[in-house]
Amino acid sequence: MPESKLRILVVTQYFWPENMRINDLVRDFSAKGHEVTVLTGWPNYPEGKVFSEYQDNPEGFNEYSGARVVRVPLVARGNRSVRLILNYLSFFLSASTLGVFRLRNDKFDAVFVYAVSPIMAAIPAVIIGRLKKVPVFIWVLDLWPETLRAVGVLRNPLLLGVVGRVVSWIYNRADYLLLQSKSFSDNVKQYCTREIAPERLVYFPSWAEDDFSGATSQSSSLLERDDSTFTVVFAGNLGEAQDLPAVLDAAESLRESISVRWVIVGDGRMSKWITEQVESRGLDNVLLLGRHPLSAMPGIFACADALLVSLKTNDVFEKTVPGKVQAYLASSKPLLGMINGEAARIIEESGCGFSCPSGDARELATITMRLATYDSAQREAMGDAGRSYYLSHFEKTTLLGRLESLFRTATLRKDAK
Asked: Is the same domain home to 136 and 282?
């Protein structure tokens, strides 16, 4: 007998046409026949301004792969901390009022929160869960308020304490807390004033988007393969946390030593600074490709000899696994990591590449030179090891199957009450 379809509400500040992993979840659950509704905001990440294509035709973004999309207004994140805070506040206020009102007649079996920053995005989900008496699942992808302190958005101890109480309020009202990193557990537990049953605190890591098949035969119109130089690709958000000044220092230090081409793909709050630095320092070995859709990334990765992940170090970032790590592993390419903690452990444990301490530009140059001296067969073996590790630990179909089972278990518990 076929299982019944689920009615799932996904609450996320970020959603298509923004490049987010939550898009995969929505598409796949909808393809399975489940009834999926997404409560989200106006697309504006990472540029900081509302996408022009959305402004021109907002009605064209109210459906995604069979899922209904309910959008509420927000303040675009801009490029200053004050605007970023307003962006966070405006979404949760708008979703908690207008969003709740617009969904007043809908019925759901589960509410799922894509809880990257800001954690306040979970508040409307908690409200809706209470009103409709359905379980709330929060996928904890960032640690709050620790992340605010770590990135320098908020430093005042009093205000951090206020945010901590908000986090505690949210966690204590969630039915399931899904943790993207095993190292999140202790941080999350300290905000749970009521004991949470072990089965409701679940390790649930990220996966790579479907675009990253691991096929290296793809080509790119944005970047040509060049076997005469060693190509390192960094892809993703260009923010302060990614420690790009140290990456540029490593690129500069190797310019006269070996032929290394550094390709930076993405956009973000540091984009202008990076462009200015590349020009002023004459870094002709650094290519800035700008922001491109996710579908363009596999072709770019295929032109790389190594994929770079970098992140500043602190007690929060060391426990976090950047989402690009899974995409890199799935792409069958060696990894270079200038990173500490969980991500460095994955690189070492999988045998997919080399890592060095966060912020250590000199050591990044060293491991880059070391990998550049390997022959193609050795690098291919490292890429294959990464792909194998990905399939064993982060494969999407397996993870989403686990999540569907959790939804059904929670639904049965609700019906049994």
From this structure: no
79-83, 288-292, 355-359: which range is least confident on average? Answer: 79-83
Rounded to an integer, what distance in angstroms lies between the CA atom of residue 265 and that of residue 298? 12
Please check whether residue 77 lies inside any domain of the structure. yes
Residues 400 and 298 in one domain: no
Residues making up the chain, counted from first to last: 417
Portion of the chain with pLDDT greater than 90, in percent:
71
Number of other residues whose CB lies within 10 A of the CB of residue 373:
9
In a domain, 216, yes or no: no
Structural domain includes residue 219? no
- In sequence order, what are the residues at sequence separation of 6 or more whose Cβ sits closer than 8 angstroms to the Cβ of residue 109? 6, 7, 8, 134, 407, 411, 414
CA 255 – CA 1 distance, rounded (Å) = 64
Q: Quote the pLDDT of residue 1.
A: 44
Residue 288 pairs with which residues in a beta bridge? 264
Q: What is the pLDDT of residues 316-342, one digit of tens each?
A: 889 989 989 999 999 999 999 999 999
Q: Is the pLDDT of residue 118 over 90?
A: no
What is the number of domains present in the chain? 2
Shared domain check, 169 and 249: no
Residue 217: the pLDDT is 55
Q: Can you give the CATH number for the domain in which 274 is found?
A: 3.40.50.2000
Q: Do 376 and 403 belong together in one domain?
A: no
Going by C-alpha positions, the residue among 254, 240, 241, 359 that lies closest to residue 306 is 254
Confidence of residue 417 (pLDDT cuts 50, 70, 90): low
Dihedral angle computed from the Cα positions of residues 92, 97, 99 and 100, in that order, rounded to the nearest 10 degrees: 120
d(CA 360, CA 377): 28
124 and 245 together in one domain: no
Give the Cα separation of 12 and 124 in Å (integer): 10
Supply the pLDDT for residue 85. Answer: 82
Give the structural domain span for 304. 230-393
Residue 171 has pLDDT above 60, yes or no: yes
348: region left, alpha or beta (phi > 0 left; psi from -120 to 50 alpha): alpha
Do both 148 and 34 map to the same domain?
yes
Q: What is the pLDDT of residues 376-412, one digit of tens each?
A: 999 999 999 999 999 999 999 999 999 999 999 888 7
End-to-end CA distance of the chain: 24
Nearest to 25 by CA among 354, 106, 37: 37
Residue 223, in any domain of the structure: no
